[in-house]
From TrEMBL:
Record keywords, A-Z: ATP-binding, Biotin, Ligase, Nucleotide-binding, Transit peptide
Lipoyl-binding domain span: 579-656
CDD domains referenced in this protein's UniProt entry, alphabetically: biotinyl_domain
Gene Ontology terms for molecular function: acetyl-CoA carboxylase activity; ATP binding; metal ion binding
Name of the protein in its database record: Acetyl-CoA carboxylase biotin carboxylase subunit
EC number: 6.4.1.2
Amino acid sequence: MRQIKTLLIANRGEIALRVMHTAKAMGIRTVAVYSDADATAPHVAFADAAVRLGPAPVAESYLNMAAVLDAAKRSGADAIHPGYGFLSENSAFADAVAEAGMVFVGPSAHAIEAMGDKARAKRAMIEAKVPCIPGYEGEDQDSAQFITAADEIGFPVMVKAAAGGGGRGMRLVHDAKNLPEALQLARSEAENAFGSGDLILEKAIIEPRHVEIQVFADAHGNTIHLGERDCSVQRRHQKVLEESPCPVMTPELRAAMGEAAVAAAQAVDYRGAGTVEFLLDKDRNFYFLEMNTRLQVEHPVTELVTGLDLVALQIRAAQGEELGIAQDDVALKGHAIEARLYAEDPALDFQPATGKIALWQAPEGEGIRCDDGITTGGEVSPFYDAMVAKIMAWGETRKVALSRLAQALDKTTLFGVRTNQAFLASAIEKSGFANGEATTAFIAEEFGEEGFADPEPTLEDMAVAAALLHRKERAGALGSALHVPEELLEWSSSLPRPSTAVFDDQTFQTSASGGDRYAVRSGEGETEIIVRDLGPSHAKLHVNGVPQDYTWAVTGQGEIYLRRSSATFDFQDTSAVLSANDAAAGGGNLVANMHGSLIEVFVKPGDKVKAGDRLAVLEAMKMQHQLEAEIDGTVEEVLAEAGAQLASGDLILTITEDEDAGS
């Protein structure tokens, strides 16, 4: 047995903080690592020591094994916890940590390698008699072989990256004619994301549940499971909502899935925390999907229903201790649900978003837990995953947990960057989720082809914004004045002088009508606002006689954010002026729609293109996004090359529209 004294966490954000909290509670010194983009991040400030890895791109920082190992040596670390993502499932890294004389808080390199390759893992599971989906996992990677295998399996099929996860390198194919393109796209995305273009093929199980079993093993031959998590609600094959227990689980089914998961772990001589993922069909048949050889993002829901600290169990197993719990000791109490807060725009097909954080306030309350790695004044950068926080709720029953989660989402504030907060609040209210009936088709079924549209501000919301801007400006003027008695605030010897704000070409005039009472006029309408309590970020108002609570922040000249329940609004007091990005974008110009790396450009000057043609691929936050032509025309100039780092709005190429395009 080897006691860990100093633990380096080879990760960032909320998982780095999560691991540090437990390590410190166990009396272990913690070391953070960081890129230039994370120099002032919360996990850096919280750690006992911190070491710079390099520039912001992951290949030069968090994926740089040599830099991480050097940081561990320089900081005196005797163990490394990889968190999830980055190097957490890299067998070469696990080997390198051991060769450097340090403890890797995770499974052996053998287990990582065996389960990290989907084809090899599936072959091992078939041998271990774990139920598997029919498919092709052979070593012959020729496209013709995949086409033949797909015909034998029968459509629809799922193309998957053999070395990957998280939805990257994955394509659902309904028809044979679409398979060659799907193979090409999946292979390209897999090579960029994982350094391997190897693929596997599986029969697509339509509308299953995605149910995973948490397993733990120690070096003394003990392997147990801690129940299941239902992770069916996903977008782009990435999880959005997770819960434990699964709403349709029975004791018999849990025992069978748990037994299969334990068998899967034992088949590769597993040690530490792992998750065996299954697809569960409508008839309650389950099939092995993959094994994640690390701690999962959604591990807290298991902690909430079992009362166990999974990071502490990881550390104890890594030190060579026994788990200290047997299968019969594991009991699930109550219900827990997790909602992943992403910096993204659900109205634009969940496109990742970036920006400076103007205000972050995590929810609090009975049964509420929030794991985050952000802070007011920080930044959501384009270099890393779009998830910024996990909002969780526990209750004695699923109904109580769901109600608490809804309240938590209504109390969460993130200003400065678009998020999926309103989408999450809407999703958990849908009958399919509320009744525990959600499958992997949930988002498509509940939100349809049109998808999700963010709530629009009401006239009253805009009036409140105008009134709060007025108060902010008044406070600024008061602060620069030598002395103004409290009783003279808002007083005028003449008629009231309204302050004016213009939001989206709509003019709002705010007039004080005594004390904390305001009249906000727009067009023919008037909104009465009475300020009952006004703090730096919270406002209790009566709006046309109705009590309303808002969270607010003024972040720039005339810019104000408001949150009402789970809906966030951003208002800019300005005349309508096209931004530089708007002026550059559209029609004949192709611009980067977000910060990212330009992976490929498919055209050159002089090429003819049609509207809808694929022109380039941009990679941001580990996802690839296709950029298409908006018009028919000829490529005039290509201004960016593959490999370039682009900011949102950067011009990539220009197109001259065909003269007869509109005829």
